[in-house]
Design brief:
Helix content: 40-55%
Bound molecules: iron/sulfur cluster
Strand order of the largest sheet: 3-5-4-6-7
Strand content: 5-15%
Largest sheet: 5 strands, mixed
Number of domains: 3
CATH topology of the largest domain: Glutathione S-transferase Yfyf (Class Pi), Chain A, domain 2
CATH architecture of the largest domain: Up-down Bundle
CATH class of the largest domain: Mainly Alpha
Shape: globular
């Protein structure tokens, strides 16, 4: 029985909570709402009440459990080691079992689990997006022309005319490879931030790493897990376990903390009661590594390859990359190694930007209230660019900048590293000519 099949399985986590309230200090939602039901302790009490039979699976209960970014800030602060995110995800799955899935979510998740249909939908969307969205004059994004469920001021990144995986071969060969890796592109790099995906490939090639980019990979299923549709998530987990499990590679590279956590933790949780798939999921999890950790820890950051990038940048820690995968130092090491680049820390760099994937769609105003602190922290650094390691954070920060009057470019860490490599190559060419 997995944590997604029975609420009884989270009882041990609930029992660890001593109701100290330390989680209040760090919960981005509680810090805005100041209501006990929005903090981990309050949610734990509600789940305990449901388990005792004192509370039913009401709409109010479901809404309280939806009010969580799964940012893991409470996990990190908790003196008792309560894995609050586990309680939240398990309870959301129990809510879906009891109340069913909203028809719109059913439709969206049904599309996500059919990669061909999803791909066709987004490719078609890229052709017609100009009819519905109008390009922002300076930021990388567009805003809706009509109110169709999205705030009219909301900035959305454009869909790439050709997805990343369609632009790349399935195997990128190099001479004398030092390692062979698989690249899980994730949806944001595949459909939105294609240039960042190309930067990943160029960096790996430059370091003599052979890359396999399976064409049949698809959404990692994190949005589906977050909304409690465990059955669909299990199907998708098995599919990825099959796709990546058969590859003979040293590592599986991810470029988004949520995808990394899904492959690294959630697939095992979902498949726990299926011994064969559980073992396969465990083997895959052991190979999962974020691109910045791979560069720093596995291939080594060769400073001879770095050219100048004259920028003052600050770095935002994505929650799932930092607290989920433990990747905090490597992106900073990369940035600090680049000549000409001035790195400045922002206040509370590891505080959630308020995105949490679809949370910013379902609770837009609250997500922007949370985000306001991020924009203020960025502004205070005087940086002329922002760097981070998650597409969802890039979307949220771009939208937040428009909302709170800031206009800075925002990059993945790999894009800055690729700029540095390109600068060095240009320097070397100049010397040679
Ligand atoms: S910090 Fe941990 S132990 Fe304390 S109330 Fe929050 S979840 Fe419970
Ligand atoms: S995971 Fe984040 S948003 Fe959710 S209860 Fe914990 S601190 Fe609050």
């Amino acid at each position: 029985m997995t944590m997604y099949d029975s609420l009884e399985t989270v009882k041990a986590e609930l029992a660890k909570c001593m109701k100290c309230g330390n989680c209040q200090e760090v919960c981005p939602i509680y810090l805005e709402e100041r209501k006990e039901g929005t903090v981990a302790r309050g949610k734990i009490k509600l789940v305990e009440a449901v388990l005792k039979g004192d509370l039913k699976y009401t709409d109010g209960f479901a809404e309280k459990l939806a009010l969580c970014l799964t940012c893991k800030a409470c996990n990190a602060k908790c003196p008792c080691g309560v894995k609050v995110d586990k309680i939240i995800l398990g309870t959301r799955a129990a809510i879906v079992k009891n109340k069913g899935l909203h028809p719109l979510k059913k439709f969206i998740f049904g599309t996500l689990k059919r990669p061909g249909l999803f791909n066709f939908g987004l490719k078609t969307g890229s052709v017609f997006q100009g009819l519905v969205f109008k390009k922002h004059k300076s930021l990388n994004g567009s805003y809706p022309r009509f109110p169709f469920g999205l705030d009219l001021k909301r900035i959305i990144p454009p869909l790439a005319s050709t997805p990343l995986r369609d632009q790349l071969p399935e195997v990128v060969k190099v001479d004398n490879p030092v390692k062979k890796v698989a690249f899980f592109t994730g949806c944001t790099m595949n459909y939105l931030y294609v240039d960042a995906g190309k930067a990943v490939v160029n960096i790996l090639k430059r370091n003599n790493v052979e890359i396999v980019i399976p064409k049949d990979q698809h959404c990692c299923s994190m949005p589906i897990i977050a909304h409690g549709d465990a059955e669909t998530a299990k199907e998708m987990a098995k599919s990825h376990v099959d796709i990546f499990g058969k590859l003979d590679v040293d590592a599986i590279i991810t470029t988004c903390g949520s995808c990394g956590c899904t492959f690294g933790h959630h697939y095992q949780e979902l498949l726990e009661d299926d011994p064969e798939y559980y073992e396969k999921a465990k083997a895959i999890a052991a190979k999962i590594i974020d691109i910045s950790d791979f560069i720093v820890k596995e291939i080594g950051l060769d400073k001879v390859k770095l050219g100048p990038v004259n920028m003052k940048v600050t770095y935002h820690d994505p929650c799932h990359l930092n607290r989920g995968m433990g990747v905090k130092d490597s992106p900073r090491e990369i940035l600090k190694a680049i000549p000409g680049l001035e790195f400045v820390e922002m206040k509370n760099a590891d505080r959630c930007c308020g995105s949490a994937g679809s949370f910013s769609l379902t609770h837009y105003d609250l997500s922007m209230d949370i985000h306001k602190h991020k924009t203020e922290a960025i502004k205070a650094t005087g940086a002329d660019a922002i760097v981070t390691g998650c597409g969802s954070c890039i979307m949220q920060i771009t939208d937040g900048m428009n909302r709170f009057d800031l206009n800075l470019p925002i990059y993945y860490t790999v894009e800055i590293l690729a700029k540095s490599y390109a600068a060095k190559e240009a320097e070397d060419k100049k010397v040679a000519s």
